[in-house]
Structure prediction request, 235 residues.
Amino acid sequence: MDFRSLCTTFAPDFVYIKEIMQLKAALFDLDGVVFDTEPQYTVFWGSQCRLYHPEHPGLEHEIKGSTLDQIYDRWWSGPLEKEREVVTQRLNDFEMQMDYSYIEGFEAFLSDLRQHGVKTAVVTSSNHPKMAAVYKAHTEFTRFFDAILTSEDFDESKPSPDCYLKAAARFGVKPEECVVFEDSINGLKSGLASGANVVGLLTTNPLEKVSCLSAFQIEDYNGLSYESLTEILNK
Prediction:
C-alpha cells in the first residue's frame, strides 16, 4: 500500500499536499528548440537522401533527432561508407551558411529564467564544427548559457538519458529539478528517461507525437515565463 492509500485508509481527513517542484535548471536542445533550423536540415538531408537512397522517399523525416554517427551507422554503411567524408563536408559547408534565427520569444524567456536564478544549458547532439558556425552567427551565444554540452561530452546519444543526466550533474541538481525543452522524438525520450520535466516544441513533429512524451507542448516561447512555467509544472 502506498503513502496516499495509507492516508486514505487511516486518516480520511488528511489532505495530501503535492511537493512543490523547485525549478533549478533549464536544459535546451539546439535545433528546433533554440534555433528555427529544422526546415533547413530537412532541405539538406532531403537532397542527400534522394541522392543516396532514392528507394526510401521521406527518409529525411525519419532521421530527425538522430546524431550524425547514428545516421551514418544505419544509412551510410557498407558500400556507402566511403561517401561519409563527402557528405560530412557538404554538411559542414551547409551549416556555415545556415540562418540561425531564434525561435520566437526564446531570448526574452531565457532572460527571465536567468533573472530568477535558473541555470541554463544547451544540451545538443551537434558537434564542435557545427557550434563554431553558431558562434560565428551569434557572438552573444555563449553568454546566454551557464553551460554548453555537445556530442563530444556524451558517451551515449539520445534517446539515452546520458546527456541530460550529465547536464544536471554539471549544475549539481537532481534531474527532477530540471526542465528539458525538446522537439525530436529521440530527444523527448531522452529527457523523460532522465527523470526531468519535459516540454515539447511543436517545431518538428505534430502534436499527436509530442504530447505523449512531454508534460505540455508549445509552438514557441511567446507568453512563457518563469512564473507561468513553474505554475504549469506544479499543477
Q: What stands out?
A: DSSP finds twelve helices and six strands in the chain.
